[in-house]
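#structure-requests
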Amino acid sequence: MPIRIVCPGCDVELNVPDTSAGKKVRCPRPECGTVASVPGQCAVKLKPVVAPRSASIPAAVPVPVTATTPVPIPPPRPAPVALKVVAKPVVVAAPVIEEVGKKPHVDEEDLPVQRKKRRKNEDEDDEEDEVKPGNKKTLIVAIAGLAFVALCLIGGIGNGVYALVSPSGTGGIGKNVARPPLPAGWQDFSFPSDNFKAYFPIRPRVERPQNAPDGRNDADHDTIYTVTMPGPTGLIISVTVTRFRSSLSPAAREQFLNTFTDPPGMTGTGDQKVETRAVIWLGENARETATPQRLERLVVTERAAYTATIARKDGRRAALEEENAFFESFALLK
């Protein structure tokens, strides 16, 4: 039967075979290996067993006990040494109260190199984001100026395109834009004395009245150029040039327009319908008057007034291509 002992080195119970009684054994644990003594077998004194009276079993015969070698008592184990734990004091820094809206103060020496660089970059960005009042004012003025220039450019481009492509010839055809096709047989005629040229079906008849009509004392003379085509539906084209003795101011030119034309608008109905509108012709402000019978334009330059009319003998307006060809080909020589 195995004998139980306790290893004095690791306090582990060991089962030792009874053949090792009274001998020394080594702890089998690799981390221990302590040598321990196995106590020997001790003599056991057996008490005689007395059977009860009611039993018929005979009394037991006492067996003598042989004394054995006394078992040595192992020495007492040393008391465990208590370890002294020394607590390291923890130093807690007093909290620093910072003002609201300000960054907490951090000693730059305690920051790693990368954090110092990042903090420096953030500070530079904050300085760039801060715009001085003077810079704000300059920026606002610059933006307003750019917006004004953009509006002017857009307006100018729009007016130019409208003047170039308007089918009614409000601005005339530019140099780089194709003129409307001319009717067959029309020719270009120039009149340097009155500073204009235009396309006509035939050469116009020229008339120069001696006196200035309508009591216009500022007029030097009038010249009337007339084209009358044969047939009951033939074209009638007339150009009246009024030369001035002196140059007219812009206000005087505007007054001339208002005197000899109706203000822009529409009057009458049916055959009496008259539509007057402001147009740009020969590079100047002009008035265009359209009725069911004729189309007429009046423009006043600094030295002369030009009144051009195109119609038909039968009281109807000319064809659209004839009106466009006449007014778009009309130009000043200088």
